Amino acid sequence: MIRWLLLLTLACACNQVHGLDQTGLIYDTPPIDAPWACPAIGTMPTFSRQLHQLPGRGCRQYTFSPKTKRAVALCYPNGVGANKESFVGEGPLDDELTPALSSPEPFENPRLTPDGQRLYVSHQQGTTVVTEQYTRVNDTWVLTKTNPFPNGYISTIATGPGGDRALMYTGGGLWEEWAEIAGTWMVVGPFDADFPLIAPVHTSLSLDGLRVIFEGLDYNDGRVSMYYSDRSAVDQRFRTPVVIDVPKSQDLVAMTEDCGKLYVFGLERLFYVSQ
Amino acid sequence: MRWGWLVVLCACNQILDLHETSGPGGPDAAYACRTDRPLRFAATLQQLPSPDCAEYSEAATADAAVATCQGAAGVTEIWTGTRDGALMPLRGITTSFRYQPNYTPRLASDATRLYVRIDTVDINFMPIATRYDEYRNGGTGWTLVGTLGLANQLDDWLSNIARDPTDRDRVVLLRANTLQEWSYDGATWTPDHMYAAGAISPPTLRSVMFAANGLHILVIAVGADGVPQVLWGKRDSVSEPFGTLAEVPDLPVPDDNTVFMSNDCGRAYFSGLGATFYTHQL
User: Fold this and answer.
1) What is the Cβ-side half-sphere exposure of residue A230, based on CA atoms within 13 angstroms?
2) Domain B15-280 carries which CATH code?
3) Is residue A3 in a domain?
4) How close B68 comes to chain A (CA, Å)?
């Protein structure tokens, strides 16, 4: 018994003498015995209110590819908001983004496809919104299509057996669901049926297309909140959205594939909260 | 054998979770409101413990802070506590307007008085009148004692309250893009310096705050390109007006337009994403 106590004491002392860190609760990684997973359809995911800041600054409207762990965003060399000089940045989500596309016209709404191989971005030309599709070729982006869909106001992009899909704002508070079928984007879904209260903005569709998080104004009491909804299959309607207790992002949110992290934007910085 | 005791002593720290002693050199030098270089802040933010709060500011000479926080059923409440500590709902003050963008709660320098903006709204929740209610803390709670006469117009913005080197409480009132400095002798508010629109900054202003005993000022102004920015100015004495303000590029413009800087200029506080943060001076 004494020998064991002495060994325990020595083991503890090793940490102290050698300056090793103590183990402790780590908030941003899943427990070993309980990996993060999306809750069942019909159950809202829950997130901590502890915000973890990522190092990148000067960009907004982040979307990222779960497969490549890379992101695109609108970046402003002179600070977020100085919208006369911007470029589309690309790089690892947890690092500074570097210029991928630049244009004399300010870019808007960059969206990366889930496989990280295509990028949609729009910009205003006079009174017209032009949307462009770029394809990754080695380390560069090549323009491969113009106006693949009517406007650039789309949610983050989901994927699935039928191809990529997104929710698209069509004006007047209305949204449609679109999918790329055999290389052509077209209306497919019944998205708008169960969203009676609000015109969603900053709409984020989960990678599997089954969950959506957005900011919305409740006309009943004037409150702006974050909402969540889900559905059991992509050909089903979304359930009536409910308020979700997550930070009110000033921009797009993005949820990881396992619903373990939710990326939010505010104060000119990118943060995430953990499940 | 003597080494064995060292090992055992080290182990005690580990088992009992005692903190290690810090290395040589002692604490860092205190922050100071330096005037020999531009004001800069770190990019990394530290989060305060109370969620869903905004409009954070502190009393100038007392260990007290105030903010607006989301209470039960989403009703905005005035919460107070110690600096950087957890905030709690303040007894004696309830607000029921969910549609008011700012309450700008302001503690007097010694935290015995509190001013809260209250808007009156019409049937469409549009503000039609405003006032600043004045509360006093009698030791057992806060009591409404009147209104602050100097701020009563819809576009008024009242700064936090500084304690200036002449031992007077001091505020800046933003009204119609002009700035008015007022000082309080314990009974009466008296106007001091007046700044016309555009005199020391771009002409369109959103907010103004004091720091460093009223010797520093933070203003959120909209630049010529339409982008809001945080500006900063300093002076050597409250008897002189502020000169042209300079940009502080590290500070974001938060939704509540409230950027509070501690009296030693060591920290800047602001809120967003349902949390309040501070960043250190560089």
Assistant:
1) 16
2) 2.115.10
3) no
4) 16
User: Which pLDDT score is estimated for B4?
Assistant: 55
Q: DSSP readout, B212-269?
A: GGGTEEEEEEE-TTS-EEEEEEE-S-TTS-----EE-TTS---TT---EE-TTS-EEE
Report the relative pairing of strands B87-89 and B204-211 from DSSP bridges.
unpaired
B70: distance to nearest CA of chain A, Å? 12
More confident residue, B74 or A148: A148
A49/B255 CB distance under 8 A: no
Query: B14 vs A221: CB contact, 8 Å cut-off?
Result: no
User: Distance (Å, rounded) from C-alpha A214 to C-alpha A200?
Assistant: 6
- Cβ–Cβ < 8 Å for A188, A179: yes
**Calpha distance A175→A199 (Å, rounded):** 8
The ranges assigned to domains in chain B are 15-280
Domain with A108, as residue range(s), is 11-33+45-274
- Within 10 Å of residue B264's Cβ, how many Cβ atoms? 13
CA distance A33 to A35: 6
Tell me the chain A residues in contact with residue B99 when contact means C-beta distances shorter than 8 Å: 222
CA atoms of A152 and A134, how far apart (whole Å) = 14
Collect all residues of chain A within an 8 Å Cβ-Cβ radius of residue B74: 221, 223
- Give the separation between CA A36 and CA B166, rounded to whole angstroms: 58
Q: Which two tokens stand for residue A180?
A: 């790329």
Supply the pLDDT for residue B5. Answer: 54
Residues 6+ away with beta carbon under 8 Å from A106: A83, A84, A86, A123, A124
Neighbouring C-beta atoms of residue A221, cutoff 10 Å:
12
Give A219 to chain B, closest Cα distance, Å. 11
Q: Interface of chain B against chain A, CB under 8 Å?
A: 7-8, 10-11, 13-15, 17, 20, 43-45, 47, 51, 74, 98-99, 125, 225, 227-228, 249, 252-255, 270, 272-275, 277
Contact B273, A266 (CB under 8 A): yes
Name which of B2, B9, B26 is nearest A17 in CA terms. B9
Q: Is position A84 within any domain?
A: yes
For chain B (282 residues), the mean pLDDT of every run of 10, in chain order, is 51 44 48 80 91 93 93 81 89 63 90 92 84 88 90 93 95 97 94 95 95 94 89 94 92 93 93 93 90
Given a contact cutoff of 8 angstroms between Cβ atoms, the answer to whether A249 and A215 are in contact is yes
A84 Cβ under 8 Å from any chain B Cβ: yes
Is A267 a domain residue? yes
- Is residue A39 a part of any domain in this protein? no
User: How many Å apart are CA B269 and CA B257, to the nearest integer?
Assistant: 11
Q: What is the CATH number of the domain that holds A16?
A: 2.120.10
Q: Please count the structural domains in chain A.
A: 1
CA-CA-CA-CA torsion sign (A201, B125, B156, B281):
negative
**CA dist., res. B282 & res. B273, Å (int):** 24
Contact A268 B252 (CB under 8 A): yes
